[in-house]
Amino acid sequence: MRTRSLLPVLAMSFFLILLAACGNAEGNESGEESGNAEGGSSEENADSGSETTEVLVDGSSTVFPIMEAIAEEYQKENPDARVNIGVSGSGGGFEKFASGETHISNASRPIKEEEVQALEDAGIEYTEFEIALDGLSVVVNKENDWVDQLTVDELKKMWSADSNVETWADVREGWPEEEIEFYSPGADSGTFDYFSEVVLGEEGQIRKDASLSEDDNVLVQGVTGSPNGISYFGYAYYAENKDNLKAVPIVNDSGEAVTPSQETIQSGEYNPFSRPLFIYVKNEALQNESVYNFATYALENGGEMAEAVGYVAKPDSAYDDALQKLDEVAGK
Predict the structure, then answer these.
(1) What kind of architecture, by CATH, is found in domain 137-272?
(2) Could you tell me which of 78, 136, 123 has the C-alpha nearest to residue 97?
(3) Which string of b and e fits 65-87 if b means at least 16 CB within 10 Å?
């Protein structure tokens, strides 16, 4: 009789335990699904949320010193901010931009038609901003005391893929019969594209025996270590290493040999190698406060930071206009 009286109680207890276990399992499953939805990827957070997000920037090695300086100062003023600046070259940066890996793309040349198309295909809208000015600098070793100036035609004669130039004497009579060592930015570099277009033309190809690198510091080291070296890169890299390098005056469209400087770059006198530098910002990413705040800071301080690292600032009014355009795109 005692055993039979406990059966209903045991049965009810077992039922309650089973019910509770099922409830917990459903709760855990629901919680896990909710957590995954809230977490998402960094790109999803950047595009749609207002949480602190790592701002992802990549692209031109020429623009890198400016954006690196901006990021360092920004993070000093905003200790919780996270900004990652990569260096893939202008072309490599646009590839990452189109694949949704970055919020901002640095470029030392305007975006190309095929890059515009890639962004359209990916459904990515963007806005272009000029962040500073640069003077692409042609440099030789400090010990080189014979190259006093070069024309664009002479540069084409030297750098073209079908060039017969091997020594300095092949460039100009009276120069030494010393073999020239060529150092060039890599094919993903906007500087490479800009130099090729200006010097070699749209269909021109650079000589095959040039040593290529996406890292401008490698090019600096190459020319510094070679008495017969020649290269080209952004003005800031020359200014930083001018004790070991010599900037070659370039004959401009007025027939005047002009050395790159902040004054000649800003005035346009140093042509055809004075050029704007760009950042491209993903419009949707500006809805995220982290990206918007950093982009605003970059445009507010771009001129000052450009000057600090050896480039040339645009007029203040240009940055004011850029900030207004940024707010319009962000819907502020």
Answers:
(1) 3-Layer(aba) Sandwich (3.40)
(2) 123
(3) bbbbbbbeebeeeeeebebebbb
68, 308 in Cβ contact below 8 A?
Answer: no
Question: By three-state DSSP, how is residue 50 classified?
Answer: coil
Q: Which residues of the chain have pLDDT under 70?
A: 1-51
Return the amino acid letter for 150: L
> Shortest CA distance to 290 belongs to which of 41, 58, 75?
75
- Virtual CA dihedral for 98, 104, 106, 110, nearest 10 degrees? 60
| Domain extent listing, the chain | 49-133+276-330, 137-272
DSSP string, 105-150: EEESSPPPHHHHHHHHHTT--EEEEEEEEEE-EEEEETT--S---B
Q: Is 183 exposed, middle or buried (0-12, 13-18, 19+ CB in 10 A)?
A: buried
Q: State the burial class of residue 35 (Cβ atoms within 10 Å of its Cβ: 0-12, 13-18, 19+).
A: exposed
Q: Do domains 49-133+276-330 and 137-272 have the same CATH topology?
A: yes
Q: How many angstroms separate the CA atoms of 60 and 131, rounded?
A: 12
pTM for the structure as a whole:
0.76
End-to-end CA gap in the chain: 80
CATH code of the domain occupying 49-133+276-330: 3.40.190.10
Instruction: Locate 296 and state its tokens.
Output: 């605003």
pLDDT single digits (tens) 76-113: 999 999 999 999 999 999 999 999 999 999 999 999 99
